[in-house]
Write a structure and sequence with these properties.
PH-domain like, alpha+beta, globular, 36% strand, YokE-like PH domain-containing protein, three-stranded antiparallel sheet, 139 residues
């Protein structure tokens, strides 16, 4: 495994994240991201079966990645950075939803735990800031 910009910034984002992903996340940048991508933040989504989905915000795109026991990390959906129109957080009965709005088309939606609502708010604020043309965060 090479020490790429994607891996370096992913690990830094993981250290800032109060959710802290776990051991399997170390392979995500190599399997899903381009080596020179810069990761701004990550959001751990609600688990589905044996999979822990992640929302990864980079300088190029927002990626919804899933880990499968036999297939490793795969991209389930993604929105190119130029197409991100903002984001919103919605509380449901026992879970929440983070919607990444596209300039054209349906939003990309991920389920999250309600215990992470502060971090979800941070992610939504970051996506809104970037969509409005704001400067990217320091990595």
């Amino acid at each position: 495994m090479a020490w790429t910009r994607a891996l370096q910034t992913f690990l830094a984002a993981d250290m800032r994240n109060p959710q802290r992903g776990g051991g399997l996340t170390i392979t995500l940048p190599e399997q899903v991201l381009e080596p020179d991508e810069t990761v701004y933040e990550i959001l751990v989504c609600r688990n589905v079966g044996d999979s822990w989905p992640f929302l990864v915000i980079t300088d190029r795109r927002v990626v919804h990645a899933w880990y499968g026991m036999f297939r490793g990390w795969r991209v389930r959906d993604q929105v190119v950075a130029a197409e991100v129109a903002g984001a919103s957080f919605e509380k449901k009965w026992i879970t929440g939803r983070v919607h990444v709005h596209r300039r054209n088309g349906k939003p990309m939606t991920v389920k999250v735990g309600l215990g992470n609502s502060d971090w979800c708010g941070h992610i939504v604020d970051l996506l809104d800031h970037l969509a409005a043309g704001g400067a990217p965060p320091r990595t």
